[in-house]
């Protein structure tokens, strides 16, 4: 038989099988747009801005609906009530990590972010314990953040008010904070190691947020048979893995089992304690990926938030001026800001929260998965179905944040000007998969951003009304456009 005919028959069978599978699944799952064979709803979704597409679909199908990224159905949760019901009220059912093929290829389902089951439970519990031991939420880590914030101030002063691209410098402080937790010491801002690490983190989040990666997640075979930016992502990981292995070897040679000094020491001691347990989750492979998870998340997310936050303050100089006025009145310009000051700086605290809400850094979180067959709002969702909680739909809820498209610190202030908490503030996600480093990130964002404004006036190179704050990517992360500014010492 002619090879062409065989291929046509195989393709026809594949399409028929796809139609049967999709038909059976769609009768059980929440409603959604009709998927095409094999490619699903890809043509109906703008992969350059999935967030916008989901908003339009929610208007048509409601707060719980199904879309097909390729042949795989994904249930989308849209709006505070649906997200809260799933991630908080039914946290056990929705606590699994869903498929994210590009990331899965790197992590092999190890570490914290991409793992499931016992390995996830033990690794996350252990990581949180070590972070607390290393000072997360305590004065010890606050001192480190203050030190790095002042190092950043010193480097910015050396610019002497000249225009500069702050991308690298904004990465140094968060990177050094998490670096000291994992590897004990810090790096000088001129150190080539720090320069390369920040470059990798920045490239990784940029690539991971690109439309091409969205396609690779929908059609994983693209990664194996086509060139693309995913190759650069994988190469960056190999370079980072090599660096991590070198640091682990150094720690193995100098390990003091009675006096662990950093995350690696704690993990190596745990590995030694469980060396006779054949089912132990504390392996060398898991250590490497856990370090990569913690290091990546602890650096780039905070860095991007600071970078985007400063751009918003350039766009709104009246808000930056009001923050500076409050800091001058409460703290002054000579004493270092500390976390205790936050209670006395309600406007500054509101600005930091509004930055996180407005930029919507991780629009849909990473996908979840249901751990068992469940019934949710009269719909049947089979075990293993991907779940996509839209954090955007909560952070931009019009009831909680009137006029949400406007950057307005008043979203977090009451009528008396006091800071106002909101249950709708979930930039770190919610439930069992909430970001393990949330406490550390919140400390860093408040201290670093407020310290910058304590010491500098932000001077844009163009009229504020001409500053473009439109993101350059709406993928895994929401990324700000390139910009330069002048840091004028006060």
Automatic annotation (TrEMBL):
Cofactors (names): heme
Subcellular location: Endoplasmic reticulum membrane; Microsome membrane
Signal sequence range: 1-25
Family matches, as InterPro entries: Cyt_P450, Cyt_P450_CS, Cyt_P450_E_grp-I, Cyt_P450_sf, Cytochrome_P450_fam2
Keyword Heme on entry: yes
UniProt-listed Pfam families: p450 (PF00067)
Record's bilayer topology term: Peripheral membrane protein
SUPFAM superfamilies reported for this sequence: Cytochrome P450
Domain of life: Eukaryota
Coiled-coil residue windows: none
Keywords noted in UniProt: Endoplasmic reticulum, Heme, Iron, Membrane, Metal-binding, Microsome, Monooxygenase, Oxidoreductase, Signal
Alphabetized PANTHER family for the sequence: CYTOCHROME P450 2C70, CYTOCHROME P450 508A4-RELATED
Family named by the database record: Belongs to the cytochrome P450 family.
Stated name of the protein: Cytochrome P450 2C21-like
Taxonomic source organism: Echinops telfairi
Gene name per UniProt: LOC101655109
